[in-house]
Amino acid sequence: MTETCKLILRGKEYEIPVFEGTEKEIGIDIRKLRDTTGALTYDPGYGNTGSCKSGITYIDGDKGILRYRGYPIESLAGKFPFSQVAYLLIYGDLPTPEQAKEWRRQLTLNSFIHQGMVNFFSFFPLDAHPMSILSSMIAAMPSFYPNYEKEDINNIIVRVIGQAKTIAAFSYKKSIGEPYIYPKTDHSYCANFLRMMFASPAEEYVVPKVFEKALDLLLILHVDHEQNCSTSTVRMVGSSMANLYVSVSAGISALWGRLHGGANEAVLNMLEMIYKDGANYKKYVELAKKKDSDFRLMGFGHRVYKNYDPRAKLLKGAVDAIFAEMGINDPLLEIAKNLEEVALNDEYFIERKLYPNIDFYSGILYRAMGIPTQMFTVLFSLGRIPGWIAHWLEMRNDPDTRIHRPRQIYTGPNERYPHT
Ligand code: SDX
Predict the structure, then answer these.
(1) Is the pTM of this model over 0.85?
(2) Which of 115, 210, 237, 285 has a CA that sits 20 to 30 A from residue 393's CA?
(3) Residue nearest to ligand 1 atom 47, measured at CA
């Protein structure tokens, strides 16, 4: 017996099917709404619209809960390497030790950029934004691996995850005019990335273990977040049967916006601006509250979390521990903590349930590792790519999937003709 709810529209009564997810979320199935009632729903930004059923990530925004394939984020972050959590998201379970070893080896063996594509770096301007390079290079991959319609999707998956790291590191080396460094199979995903960023051909670079573990934590916290803007973009592009490469490239482009993944870069720029303005953080909290100012407290607020973002909580703890261990003293961290303290006790933020989100502290940690601000959203992309891939695969294998094609309510001119 299907549960239903009643809709009364212009005097007529309709029974609309209702179903429940595994965490008791209620879905009103409106797939036949227009056919039966002639009406559409209206939900700009899809804040109340479920675009799919998904078994990948569960978020409870009110309780600050985030789980990957059922595992609470706290049981994974800082306890597993990023590559194994990426495997969990894509294949549904944590890998066995043998699977983990082979998966890490495949990721490294497949992380060499096609030699035909390496030349592309020389055509980008020296100050090209690394997000522009990353999305362009991944969109170019189907030209160099053209068998994407028939090739085993698992080959494409390790190639995208592996090469994205290399493209990111190469774009940094290009920006500072240094030779490219290539990955090694005896390094983890994160150790390889840091070595490719900071090693020089003249001498071996030993990746500081504390930074390798910090990057594992950061990338794990970014791995997935259900139907956020960039993940929904990857699903939408993939729903037209576009290949995985260009679907991921579209996700990178969507992530770049400062309201989304670009916020981590915007947070650092904001903290530096406040620092240069005499660390007058209270002035900026007041500015963020003014309707007529377009200044927002970057790294604050979230569409889903109406409580402290559990990822921000973990990051804040990691920053304190790593800075203490490394004896780092960053005035920007003090400004961030003061901003948080003032905002969390201010009626404007309390009333709107605005808390620090993942982007508020991540940039401070990237900066401590020596990663330039413009690379922050690239690191967000490296973390999120396995999540995008997991959703793309789930969408492709979902019998409910149709090409994404939302409707609209037309508000333009009624029928008319030109005066002749
Ligand atoms: C990410 O979706 C995801 O899961 C995203 C993400 C992921 O992992 O994929 O979690 C990653 O994108 C995190 C968010 C990073 N963005 C920022 O930090 C940018 C700053 N935050 C905001 O712009 C905003 O909070 C959003 C974009 C995050 C959420 O926007 P919403 O849900 O559309 O909320 P809104 O803009 O309608 O704001 C509601 C009210 C408004 O005030 P009123 O009109 O009610 O008076 O809150 C105010 C807003 O002005 N507000 C802020 C604010 N964020 C919201 N006021 C000051 N500073 C802010 N940061």
Answers:
(1) yes
(2) 115
(3) 352
What pLDDT is stored for residue 22 in this prediction? 97
- Report which protein residue has its CA nearest ligand 1's atom 41: 352
Helix axes 82-91, 97-109, angle to 10 degrees: 100
Residue 194 identity (one-letter amino acid)? L
Nearest atom in ligand 1 to 357's CA: 13
Those residues with Cβ within 8 angstroms of residue 79's Cβ, 6 or more apart along the chain or in another chain: none
For residue 88, the model assigns a pLDDT of 98
Q: Is the CB of 228 under 6 A from ligand 1?
A: yes
Query: Is the CB of residue 222 less than 8 Å from the CB of residue 384?
Result: yes
Tell which phi-psi region holds residue 341, choosing left (phi > 0), alpha (psi between -120 and 50) or beta.
alpha
Q: Compute the mean pLDDT over every residue in the chain, rounded to the nearest whole number.
A: 96
b/e code 318-347 from CB counts within 10 Å (16+ = b) = bbeebbeeeeeebebbebbbebbebbeebe
CA angle 371, 376, 377 (to 5 degrees): 155
List, in order, residues 6 or more apart from 319 with CB less than 8 Å away. Answer: 333, 361, 364, 365, 368
Question: Is 297's C-beta closer than 6 angstroms to any atom of ligand 1?
Answer: yes
Please write the tens of the pLDDT for every residue from 63-87: 999 999 999 999 999 999 999 999 9
- pLDDT over threshold 90, residue 56: yes
With bands split at pLDDT 50, 70 and 90, how would you rate the model's confidence at 185? confident
List, by residue number, the catalytic residues: 302, 359
